[in-house]
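User: C-alpha cells for this one?
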Amino acid sequence: MGTEEKQLVRESGSMPERRLTTATMIDLYAARQYLGLETLKETGLRIPVQVYFKDPDVAEATEVAGIDDEFTTPWEPGLRDGPTSARFAVVDYDATKNELAPPAIWDRKRSCYLAPDRTTVLDGTTKHLPQYHQLSVWAIVQNTLDFFESSSGVGRRISWAFDGNRLIIVPHAGYGENAYYDRASKSLQLYWFNNDKGTVFTCLSSDIVNHEFGHAVLDGLRPHYYESVDGQTAAFHEFVGDLTAILMAFRNNAFRKIALQESHGKLTDAQLLAGLAQQFGKATEGAPYLRSGLNEKTMHDLKGNLEPHALSEVMTGAMFDILMGVFASHQKNELKRAQAAGSSNPSDIRALADTVPRMQMLAIQPLDLLPPCDVTFRDYALAVLRSEQVTNPTDPSGYRHLMIDCFIKRGVLNETDGERLMEIGPVFSRQALDVFHSVDAIAASRGGAYRFLDDNRAKLLIPQNADIIVPEVVRAQKRSRDGLPQPEQTIVQYLWREELLLEGSRFGRFAGERTTMLCGATMVLDPNGNVIHWARKPGTLPVGDSKAAQTEQTDGFRRRDQFLHTIAARVASGEIGETVGGELGLLERASPPFTVQRVDGGIRFGLAPHFSLSGYGERDETGDRQWQISF
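Assistant:
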C-alpha cells in the first residue's frame, strides 16, 4: 500500500477492498508470527473494529478519547456469526428480558461484521445496536488474548480452566451493576443498568471487559488459585484484571498521545491512563473512577485488611510506579538522542511508545514463574525481578534497582530482600538430581514430568508419600527487550494435597471437618536443564534431613498455621457459603466471596465467581446488597 493510499484510508476511516484470495490469506495467516503489525493490517490479518478507548463517559468528557479508529483485532480463517472465533463465542442472551438478540453477521467477502440486515457495517455509528456491542466486546478479548499469547507475553497458547476451548461472552447478561468471569458457566457475564444519564452497558467499557478477561486468563494459567481463602491470592486476581486493563489502554498509539497531553508529559498526572472504569465508577460509587494505578497505598496501610479489591491497589500502584520509572528512563534516552542531533525537543511520544513493549514483557512474562497455588504479592515481585535478571542480566539502565525500590516502598518486599536481590551471582544454576531426565523427556507429557519429579523427590523437596499432581507442563518461546528470542522455557507446575483437621470452635460449623492444603511448586527450565525459576509452596511433611529440607518444613508449618488462621477469620466474618443462583443467573446480593464444597469426604474452600467483595455490606451506602460487584 503506497503513501497516498494509506492517507486515503486514514481519511475515509476504512480499509480498501482487498483482492487477496482466501488461500493467500490462509498462507499469510500461517506465517503471521513473522509479519510486522503494519503488514498484518494491510493484508487484512488484523480486522479494523471501532471500539471505545475507555467507555462512553470518557468519550463524552474527553472528545479526542472517544471511539478508537485505529483499533484492530486478529483475523482467523474460521470466523463466523456471533461473532464466533476459535477461542470465543458471543451469545447475546439477556436473562432479565428473556431475550436472545440476533448475532452480528460475518461477511467473508468484505471481511467485516454486519448488522442483521446484512448491509449495515458495524462501526462507531451503529453503537446503539446490540450487534455493535457484540462485536466490540469480542474484538477486545480477541485482541487481548493475542497480547497475552505473543512472544512479548507468555509466548504460547493459553488454555482455559474449564473443559472446552471457547469462552462464552454474554454482552447483555441482564440488569445489574455487575460484570464477572465465571468458570462454571465458561463465560464472561457483562450486565447493564440505568442511571440518570441513561443505560450503562458494562460491555462498552474496555476497562471492564479487559479486567474480567484478565480473570479468565489468570484462571487458565493458574487454575488452582481458585482454591484459596487467602486475601492476597484473591487480590492478585483483581490486580491482574486491573493490570490487563491498564496495559491494553497503554498499547494504543492515539490514547498514549491523549494521556501525555492530559498529563503534560508526566505520567504522575495521567489519571486518564491510570484510572479504571470511569463511567462505572461515577454511576455506582459517585467517584471519578472505580480504582486507579495512581495511588499511594502500602501493605502497612492495609494491614489486617483482607478485602481483595482494596488490597489489589497496592500491587497495581507498585507496577504503575515501575511504569513511570521506565518511562522516565526512556525520556532521558530521548533527551540524549535529541541533544546528539542538535535538538532541544525530545519526543515524549517515542519514549512512551518504547515503554509499552518493555512493560508488557516486564509485567506479563513473569506470570509463568508464579507458584501453582496461594500466590502472594511477594511471589509476583520475585518473579518480576527474576524474569528481568534472566532477560537483562547486565541491567545497564538500573531497572532491577528501580523495581526493588518500588516494591520496598509499597511493603511488598523488605530491605533485607533488596540487599539479597542486588547481590552479584550466577544468573543460572543447575538443580542437584538423583536421576537425570532430559528436558525433552520432561516436556513431552505430564507423565514425563511426573516421572522426573517422582525420581527426584528428595532433591526437589517433595514428601515421599505425597501423591503428585501435574496440572500442566508447557513450552514457551518468549522474546527479550531487544526483540531477540529467549531460550525456550519448559514450565512444570506440580501439586500435592496435605490433609488437615479443622479442630476447635473457631471453625464454627466446619469444626471437626477435614480439608486439604495445596502444596507444590512451579519449576521453569531452559533447554540445557538450568533452573530459570523455582517457586515453591511447602507443606509440613518431612522432606529430608538437610538444612534446606528443615527450612522447607519450617516454612510449611508457617503456611499451615496461616492457612488455618485465615479459614477461621473467614468463618468468623461470615464470608464462606454457597453461591446462590436462580432463573436469572447468579444472585450477587446473596453470593459470598468464598465458597465451600464437599469433595472425597472432606471440604474444600475456594473463590466464588465474583472472586470477592468490592466493599463489605456494612460499608455499602445502598444498604441492600450483602455482596457487591466483582469488578
